[in-house]
C-alpha cells in the first residue's frame, strides 16, 4: 500500500492552498546562472545567443529577470537550409537534457553548421532546473502544456518557434531523462495534485524504471528508420533499455529496439511544438549503475548527432 503524498487529501484535487504548500516545500538546490547562463558566454563568437522571454514567477518577490530564457542559433540562418530544433530541460530536473544540449553546442561539428539551421533551447524550465522539479512553480507540467501554451515555459517556446522564418522544421530532438524520482516523487505528486485514485493494490500505476536509453517517437509519424539511427548512435556510448516481461517500456509496447511511441500532439508534449517531419524524445537513466553524469550527457549528444547524420546519409534535406 502506497503512503499518501505529503500534501493534500487523497482523492481530492489540489486547490490554491495545496499548490502554495507544495511550492513552499521546494528549494533552490543548484544555480541556473552558473550551470547554464555562464556556459552560454563562450558561444557568442560562433552563434547568436538571444533571450526569448523570462519567467514571471508566482509572486512579486520573484524579479522577472531571475529566470531569463535563452536560445542559441547558428549564424547565417538561411531559407535554403533545413531547420533543426533541439530542446533540453523541459523538465528542469532532467539534468543531462540541459547539459547534453550545452555540450552539443560546445562540440558542434562544422558539417552540421554548414548544412543546417540549428536552434537550441538548452533549458526551457530554469526554475525546475534550480529546484530539481518536474513541474514549474505553479505545479504545472510544461511537457503536457504544448497543446495550449498553458505554462509560461511552453508559451514562450511556442512563440519563439512561430517567430522563426521557417517554412518547415525538418527535425526536433527533445532531450529528457527517466529517473528513480519519477517513481518515488513525481508520480505520487501527480496523483495527489489531480486527486487520482490508486490502483487495486494501492499503488501509483508505476511501471519499472527502464535501465538504459530509449526514445519516444510520434505515433502519428513514427519514422522508424530515423529512430533506429538515433538508437544505433547511442549504442556506441551507453546501453539501450530492454523491455519488461510484458514487452513494454514505462507501460508502452516497444515498436523496435529502444523505441516506444506516444501521440505527442494530443498529449501536449514538447516534441510537437515544431511539427517537425522527424521528431524524437530521448530518455536516459542517470540512476543506472552502468551510467554516469558524463555518459548521460554523451548519450544526449550522440542522439542529436545520430539524428542529423541520418538525414545527411539518407540525403534528406
What does this structure look like?
This protein has 317 residues and is of the alpha/beta class. The model has no long low-confidence stretch (mean pLDDT 94). The longest helix has 22 residues, at 293-314. The strands form 2 sheets. The chain has an 8-stranded mixed sheet. Strands 7-8 form a two-stranded antiparallel sheet. Helix 3 (95-106) crosses helix 9 (293-314) and helix 8 (224-235) crosses helix 9. The chain has one domain (16-314): 3-Layer(aba) Sandwich (Aminopeptidase), CATH 3.40.630.10. It contains 9 helices and 10 strands. Pfam families: AstE_AspA_cat. One of its GO terms (molecular function) is hydrolase activity, acting on ester bonds. One of its GO terms (biological process) is proteolysis. Residues 30-317 form the Peptidase M14 domain. This is Peptidase M14 domain-containing protein.
- In total, the number of domains comes to 1
Q: Using DSSP, what is the number of strands?
A: 10
CATH architecture: 3-Layer(aba) Sandwich
Separation of termini?
Answer: 53 Å
Q: Which superfamily, in CATH terms, is the homologous superfamily? A: Zn peptidases
Overall structural class, as computed from helix and strand content, comes to alpha/beta
Strand order, sheet with most strands: 1-2-4-3-5-10-6-9
The share of residues in helices is: 25-40%
Protein name: Peptidase M14 domain-containing protein
Family: Belongs to the peptidase M14 family.
Organism: Emiliania huxleyi (strain CCMP1516)
Pfam family, one: AstE_AspA_cat
Amino acid at each position: 500500500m502506497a503512503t499518501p503524498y505529503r500534501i493534500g487529501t487523497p482523492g481530492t484535487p489540489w486547490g490554491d492552498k495545496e499548490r502554495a504548500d507544495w511550492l513552499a516545500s521546494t528549494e533552490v538546490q543548484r544555480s541556473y546562472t552558473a550551470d547554464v547562463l555562464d556556459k552560454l558566454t563562450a558561444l557568442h563568437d560562433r552563434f547568436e545567443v538571444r533571450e526569448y522571454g523570462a519567467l514571471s514567477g508566482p509572486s512579486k518577490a520573484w524579479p522577472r529577470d531571475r529566470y531569463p530564457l535563452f536560445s542559441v542559433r547558428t549564424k547565417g540562418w538561411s531559407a535554403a537550409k533545413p531547420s533543426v530544433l533541439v530542446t533540453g530541460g523541459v523538465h528542469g530536473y532532467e539534468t543531462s537534457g540541459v547539459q547534453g544540449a550545452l555540450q552539443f553546442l560546445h562540440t558542434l561539428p562544422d558539417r552540421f553548421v554548414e548544412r543546417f539551421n540549428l536552434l537550441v533551447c538548452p533549458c526551457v524550465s530554469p526554475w525546475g532546473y534550480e529546484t530539481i522539479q518536474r513541474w514549474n512553480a505553479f505545479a504545472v507540467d510544461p511537457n503536457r502544456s504544448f497543446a495550449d501554451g498553458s505554462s509560461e515555459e511552453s508559451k514562450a517556446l511556442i512563440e519563439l518557434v512561430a517567430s522563426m522564418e521557417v517554412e518547415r522544421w525538418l527535425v526536433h530532438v527533445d532531450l529528457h531523462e527517466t529517473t528513480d524520482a519519477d517513481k518515488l516523487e513525481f508520480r505520487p505528486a501527480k496523483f495527489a495534485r489531480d486527486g487520482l485514485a490508486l490502483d487495486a493494490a494501492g499503488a501509483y500505476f508505476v511501471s519499472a524504471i527502464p535501465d538504459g536509453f530509449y526514445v519516444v517517437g510520434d505515433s502519428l509519424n513514427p519514422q522508424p528508420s530515423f529512430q533506429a539511427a538515433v538508437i544505433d548512435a547511442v549504442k556506441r556510448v551507453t546501453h539501450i533499455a530492454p523491455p519488461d516481461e510484458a514487452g513494454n517500456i514505462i507501460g508502452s509496447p516497444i515498436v523496435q529496439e529502444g523505441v516506444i511511441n506516444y501521440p505527442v500532439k494530443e498529449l501536449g508534449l514538447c516534441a510537437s511544438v515544431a511539427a517537425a517531419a522527424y521528431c524524437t524524445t530521448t530518455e536516459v537513466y542517470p540512476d543506472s549503475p552502468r551510467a554516469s553524469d558524463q555518459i548521460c550527457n554523451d548519450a544526449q549528444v550522440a542522439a542529436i548527432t545520430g539524428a542529423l547524420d541520418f538525414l545527411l546519409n539518407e540525403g534528406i534535406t
